[in-house]
Write a structure and sequence with these properties.
The complex is a heterodimer of chains A (about 180) and B (about 650). Chain A is of the alpha+beta class and about 180 residues long. Chain A is built from five helices and seven strands. Chain A folds into two domains: about 5-145, no CATH class; about 150-180, no CATH class. Chain A has helices at about 25-30, 85-90, 125, 150-165, 165-180; strands at about 5-15, 40, 45-50, 55-60, 75-80, 80-85, 135-145. By secondary structure, chain B is an alpha+beta fold. Chain B contains 25 helices and 21 strands. In chain B, strands 1, 2, 3, 4, 5, 6 and 7 form a seven-stranded mixed sheet that branches. In chain B, strands 9-8-13-10 form a four-stranded mixed sheet. In chain B, helix 1 (about 25-30) packs across helix 2 and helix 13 packs across helix 14. The longest helix of chain B has 21 residues, at about 510-530. Chain B is globular, with a radius of gyration of 24 Å. The chains are: A alpha+beta (about 180), B alpha+beta (about 650). The interface between A and B is large, with 29 and 42 residues.
Chain lengths: ~180, ~650
């Protein structure tokens, strides 16, 4: 595959500053509602604040890639007296847990950096983080060219993983025959 | 489709275990919004006024506000509503945190508890799954320690938990309901929860809340957000630090406590110590505070950081906010702040109100020193100030010995003890402990706020109007220049003409007419906040707040889709406010109850005070007993209230 120059967008998380208000979750779910801003549900947010207040853990994690299988690791880390495991920082929508899945359908969700928003604007969670925990960063990198899956393809892929390709095709065929009732 | 609200109540009968999800009448939202307004209506309709706090018929309502859970910043208040064991009136202790939003995401606007459970239980609400669960293993457990246990038991780290401690279980009148960094503390909500045998209400929700005109709503919210940033970067000038910002009083951030320690009274609201704040104390208190605070924390969807995670030496961790930082040290005359962090942690686990409780403990010490309480009452009590307070706190929350009497608060305890103890109950209004303030000159605005509002709590209904006149004309002119929060521009003149001394100063200025306008406006915005679920620190309880009388209705109408303008919103909250008053009138409240503590100010003006009440009652559309007139009630579509008051002979046709 050819190498191309690509603008990498990312969110730096300064968790030491997080006060746990969860505004990032709220505006994320509100922005990604259909129609835009029509509803709110933090459980649909593509950023989740991992909370364990009494051990002083307030950690925003934003959704990354969908993965069909859970990983082998469950390593523990102790950082500055606080215990985390691999899962805490992991951005994957994974079968081992509910994080980064639509609460009703269970389909995976992934941060898209609010690309539908006005060009040049940072993601909504960054804009709504008044305490500067979330910092938007852009940099150019040379990367392998890859075909990115859009949201529906990620969802379909997870259904294929769960039910198998043939079953999914059969279901879609059956649903399309029912036609207008859908 | 319902917008901003979920359109469902959760009705739980604790005696039978019956749980129902009940669709609500949208008309009630149009008439009373949510939060306090709606709850008052439920009490009027369903709880006979003869009902006492610990009768099974008393409801305990946990309600979200109408805009809780939406993206509008700082709408996070849970309004608990119940009949107070202390005042025997309809009370509404409130708390911030995350509970209200979580309840809405679970699909309910409020939970209504009736009757009593035969044994200690906790309630688990997880979307459509609602369970009454045995809590016998949680008996006596602290409000903080219970959280990890419940999270593990339910295998659900994201639940929001509102719990009582030992004080609530033992029906201590100042028992609080604790949740996250917040607590519904005032007027004994925790005691009623304990009486109903509910240890905790645990909520998790993953459902949607709809907005009627989302894009428009977000534009309004963004404007508010810009102003929040502006205010955070530009503290107000001319006022003390604590009043210069927005949010709850920033007691976790500010370390300079000269003003509170020297102006608030120590002990049971007894003694001012005008030279307390020395360099040495400043250094010691500041370093203790900085050492204790592990992290500043926020409530749901609020950029302010009014609370803190406290991690101090060997003290188990807990969360704290506001004046509980120093109330115990001041009440106990203990000159170090470390004592306060230590005892406040225990008090938080026990679940008691951090304002009333220290005063009650200090009241006991005063009675002992006066010989009214004796060595027998204090048998086993350590002699030192710190030990004495810890010992008294333990007795109160367990209702052991003298603690059983003290647990009813200073008013009731004084009457049970007798022997002159009544004179030591000198800082209550309507039987409830107030700020430990003893001042000089009677302040007509505060006189009306203290006397007449149904909140009866510390913050009363103050906030938007400066506490005192500014010293110079230039400062006043500067302040009024940018003051869009005022309901009308003519208020600016009242402020410009208000001077620290001379003809235009307290107590005769602002005049009773001006006071009526100012107090009525402040009460109205408090009532709006309490119906919508806004933290008053971002609205009614601070100077030049982000939310005010000119923008609330924009948020309400775009969120709900209801056609409500500024005038319409005013009418709605006025309706609920008068309904609340009428309900308390049925419970016996009258003009004679509407007075601040006798020694709140040194200089009192009986005639002027009567004139203030007369003028304000008239302005509110109340008769001279403080009862809403028939005309007023009809104007607010409260015909059924007028009929009821007439039927009972409280309002007499043709005379009111």
């Amino acid at each position: 595959m050819a190498k191309i120059k690509k603008k990498i967008k990312s969110i730096k998380v300064n968790a030491d500053k997080c006060n746990g208000c969860r505004s990032c979750e709220i505006i994320c779910s509100n922005f990604h509602a259909t129609p835009k801003y029509s509803s709110i549900n933090p459980a649909r947010s593509r950023i989740q604040v991992i909370l364990d207040p009494m051990t002083d853990i307030w950690l925003p994690v934003f959704a990354g890639e969908y993965t069909p299988a859970e990983c082998m690791g469950r390593g523990k880390y102790v950082i500055d007296g606080k215990e985390y495991d691999d899962c805490t920082f992991c951005r994957a929508s994974c079968p081992a847990r509910d994080r980064f899945k639509e609460p009703d359908s269970g389909l995976p969700i992934k941060c898209d950096m609010c690309e539908e928003n006005d060009p040049g604007q940072p993601p909504l969670c960054v804009q709504w983080c008044y305490n500067e925990v979330l910092i938007y960063e852009e940099r150019e990198e040379e990367v392998e060219e890859e075909v990115r899956l859009d949201e529906i393809e990620i969802g379909l892929e997870s259904l294929v993983d769960k039910y198998g390709f043939q079953k999914l095709v059969d279901s879609i065929a059956r649903m399309s025959q029912k036609g207008s009732s859908l | 489709m319902r917008c901003a609200e979920t359109g469902y109540n959760l009705e739980i009968d604790l005696a039978t275990g019956n749980i129902e999800k009940v669709e609500t009448d949208p008309k009630l939202t149009e008439l009373h919004l949510g939060g306090l307004g709606y709850n008052v209506k439920l009490f009027w309709d369903r709880v006979p006024p003869e009902t006492k706090a610990f009768d099974p018929e008393n409801l305990l309502i946990f309600s979200s506000g109408l805009l809780c859970g939406t993206p509008a910043f700082s709408f996070n208040r849970t309004c608990v509503t119940t009949i107070s064991p202390q005042t025997e009136l309809l009370a509404y202790p409130m708390m911030g945190g995350f509970w209200a939003a979580e309840l809405k995401y679970a699909g309910y606007d409020r939970v209504i508890f009736r009757n009593k459970s035969p044994k200690l239980v906790y309630i688990y609400i997880n979307n459509d799954k609602v369970e009454i669960r045995d809590a016998s293993h949680l008996k006596g457990m602290g409000t903080v320690e219970i959280r990890d246990i419940l999270k593990k038991e339910l295998n659900e780290p994201k639940v929001s938990i509102a719990a009582i401690g030992l004080a609530g279980e033992n029906r201590v009148f100042t028992a609080s309901i604790e949740q996250g960094r917040s607590s519904a503390s005032r007027l004994g909500g925790g005691a009623v929860m304990g009486d109903k045998n509910i240890k905790a209400v645990v909520v998790r929700g993953t459902k949607d809340i709809n907005l009627a005109r989302g894009e428009e709503f977000i534009k309004h919210v963004n404007k508010v957000g810009e102003y929040i940033k502006f205010r955070n970067e530009n503290p107000l000038k001319g006022v003390m630090t604590i009043l210069s910002g927005i949010g709850s009083p920033q007691e976790m951030k500010h370390t300079d406590e000269k003003w509170h320690t020297e102006n608030f009274s120590w002990g049971n609201a007894r003694t001012r110590r005008r030279d307390f704040w020395t360099d040495e104390i400043n250094q010691s208190w500041s370093s203790t505070q900085r050492a204790a605070i592990k992290r500043y924390i926020s409530c749901f969807n609020c950029p302010q950081q009014c609370g803190a995670l406290i991690s101090y030496k060997d003290v188990p961790r807990f969360k704290q906010k506001c004046f509980t930082k120093l109330t115990y040290s001041m009440a106990a005359y203990v000159d170090n702040l470390e004592f306060n962090f230590r005892i406040a942690q225990r008090a938080t686990e026990y679940g008691v109100d951090g304002f009333s409780t220290p005063q009650i403990l200090a009241f006991a010490v005063e009675l002992y020193e006066a010989g009214i309480l004796t060595d027998k009452d204090f048998e086993g009590c350590p002699p030192d100030k710190e030990g004495r307070f810890n010992w008294l706190l333990d007795r109160v929350v367990r209702r052991e010995g003298i603690g059983d009497i003290l647990a009813d608060g200073t008013y009731w305890a004084a009457r049970r003890i007798g022997k002159g103890a009544e004179a030591f109950d000198h800082n209550t209004i309507k039987k409830h402990e107030q700020l430990p303030l003893k001042l000089g000159m009677m302040d007509p605005l505060y006189f009306l706020m203290y006397s007449t509002n149904e909140k009866i709590s510390i913050t009363q209904i103050e906030g938007n109007w400066p506490q005192a006149p500014f010293p110079t004309k230039e400062m006043r002119e500067e302040f009024v220049k940018d003051w869009p929060q005022l309901p009308d521009d003519h208020f600016k003149q009242y402020f410009l003409d208000w001077e620290p001394r001379g003809e235009n100063s307290n107590p005769y200025y602002p005049t009773p007419d001006m006071c009526s306008e100012i107090v009525d406006w402040m009460e109205e915005i408090h009532n709006i906040d309490d119906a919508l679920g806004l933290c008053c620190g971002m609205g009614s309880f601070c100077l030049k707040p982000p939310y005010h009388t000119h923008n609330y209705h924009l948020l309400v109408s775009s969120a709900t889709g209801l056609d409500i303008d500024q005038v319409g919103l005013k009418k709605i909250v006025n309706r609920s406010r008068n309904l609340h008053r009428a309900y308390n009138v049925l419970k016996g409240m009258r003009r004679a109850d509407e007075k601040p503590p006798q020694d709140h100010w040194k200089k009192r003006f009986p005639e002027l005070e009567e004139q203030l009440l007369d003028t304000y009652y008239k302005y509110k559309g109340w008769n001279m007993e403080g009862i809403p007139t028939k005309e007023k009630l009809l104007e607010l579509d409260l015909d059924y209230v007028a009929e009821d008051l007439e039927r009972r002979g409280i309002l007499k046709d043709g005379q009111n």
